[in-house]
Amino acid sequence: MNSNFFNTEESFRKMFTQGDEQAFRMVFDAQLNPLCYFAEKLTGQREDAEDIVSQAFYKLWKRHKDFSSMAGIRSFLYTTVRNQCLDYLKHRSVVSSARQQLSNTYSDAGMETSMYQAELLQLIYLEMRELPEKHRQILEWSFLEESSTAEIAERLLMTETHVRVEKSRALVKLRSALRRKQLWEQALVFFAWWQVIR
Q1: pLDDT band at 88; cut points 50, 70, 90
Q2: What is the 3-state secondary structure (H, E, C) of the chain?
Q3: pLDDT tens digits for 45-82?
Q4: 175 exposed, middle or buried (CB, 10 Å; 0-12, 13-18, 19+)?
Q5: C-alpha–C-alpha distance, residues 154 and 151, integer Å
Q6: What confidence tens digit (pLDDT) does each residue in 91-107 have?
């Protein structure tokens, strides 16, 4: 869906509140990956995170008449996903104090940080999609699926040395693309943070 279809924020708002599927698709395409990432970091479960995000989009669709801006839609989605993740952890009973602990960790400031990380990941992912197929696959398997070099080599029928070389080339191309968009410094911080939490 091309966002240029809506010439102004007002035209988008009007179409969205009228239940236009193209307007909803624009929101869905823009927010799906960041929200899934955000939910997965809260729950620790990819499939459950995707279910939670799907429910949030369903609730958004049911209430499409209530929103007057993209900012309001975005705030609703993140708040809904956050609350559903808290309920999910409560039902799982991971620890008796899970809800309070998560509430403290993801205060308004913490939530903003996680939202920023999610949307930065989305920008990085979009740049990765522009890479040659093999380079994109290696980076996705390495960073998103956390596959080892040996596992990637087996999937691509390559030697581990060859995988390392191709991964290095892919990172060089990704770095150049991010630098052109002045995102490289933020990406470095993100990847450093990613290594800590893995």
Answers
A1: confident
A2: CCHHHCCCHHHHHHHHHCCCHHHHHHHHHHHHHHHHHHHHHHHCCHHHHHHHHHHHHHHHHHCHHHCCCHHHHHHHHHHHHHHHHHHHHHHHCCCCCHHHHHHHHCCHHHHHHHHHHHHHHHHHHHHHCCCCHHHHHHHHHHHHCCCCHHHHHHHHCCCHHHHHHHHHHHHHHHHHHHHHCCCHHHHHHHHHHHHHHC
A3: 888 888 899 989 998 988 888 887 888 898 899 999 99
A4: middle
A5: 5
A6: 765 444 544 555 555 55
User: Which residues, in sequence order, are CB contacts of 8 under 8 Å at separation 6+?
Assistant: none
Q: Which of 186, 42, 34 is nearest to 106 (CA)?
A: 42
Confidence band, pLDDT 50/70/90 cuts, at residue 3: very low
Spatial contact of 12 and 24, defined as CB atoms under 8 Å apart:
no
In the numeric block, the tokens 């609730």 are attached to 59
Residue reference for tokens 């205060």: 107
Averaged pLDDT, 151-175: 85
Closest CA to 142 of 116, 120, 168, 118: 168
Tell me the pLDDT tens digit for each residue of 30-55.
Answer: 888 889 888 988 888 888 888 899 98
